């Protein structure tokens, strides 16, 4: 279970670009808009479900890079994490097209069944920072990664084999290139994209020239 959740978070990539977004927009992914209202609702639903799911809490606590618990209110980290995944789901669909790989519903179904055998698809989805309603999206994301890596020659029976590791690198590089070409825009409220970390980073507050002392005398 730890491997599944960590792979989902680590494999995803998100590219952002500057520019203004419409009021109420959390992110634009090509022509697809993720609203602030839907993101707020997603994180609220996640928090309500996550606190009552001990399996999800255990998976999250055992997975590197994931906060183990909840604060009193929705945090920017919660919002950033959920938004990153929602964007990544959309990017993955285009990655599959770029790679010339079909991801049939049957493959997503088998992936969901595998998740149910390893802690439960709902609990695994909660551990990543999304509510259970996104279990199917997460299963499709994992199925897409699996299909693309297989095309690149991965030996999925051995995660540590040189072929699998090379395929994972190719998947990551293709994901980055694809995302960068989609002109993804992130609302500055939720931070900025860090290409080196392939993730949404902390909000950066910029001072005016006078406040930084860089203005002309």
Automatic annotation (TrEMBL):
Domain of life, per lineage: Bacteria
Full protein name: Lipoprotein
Source organism: Actinomadura verrucosospora
């Amino acid at each position: 279970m730890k491997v599944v959740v960590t792979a989902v978070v680590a494999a995803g990539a998100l590219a952002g670009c500057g520019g203004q977004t419409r009021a109420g927009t959390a992110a634009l992914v090509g022509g697809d808009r993720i609203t602030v209202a839907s993101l707020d609702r997603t994180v609220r639903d996640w928090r309500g479900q996550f606190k009552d799911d001990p399996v999800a809490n255990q998976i999250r606590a055992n997975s590197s890079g994931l906060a183990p618990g909840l604060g009193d209110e929705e945090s920017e980290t919660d919002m950033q994490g959920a938004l990153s995944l929602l964007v990544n789901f959309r990017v993955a669909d285009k990655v599959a097209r770029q790679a010339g790989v079909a991801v049939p519903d049957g493959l997503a179904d088998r992936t969901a069944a595998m998740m149910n055998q390893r802690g439960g698809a709902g609990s695994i989805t909660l551990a990543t920072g999304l509510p259970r309603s996104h279990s199917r999206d997460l299963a499709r994301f994992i199925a897409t990664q699996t299909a693309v890596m297989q095309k690149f020659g991965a030996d999925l029976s051995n995660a540590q084999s040189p072929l699998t590791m090379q395929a994972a690198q190719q998947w990551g590089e293709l994901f980055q290139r694809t995302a960068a070409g989609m002109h993804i825009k992130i609302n500055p409220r939720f931070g900025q994209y860090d290409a080196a970390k392939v993730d949404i980073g902390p909000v950066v507050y910029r001072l005016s020239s006078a406040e930084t002392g860089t203005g002309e005398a």
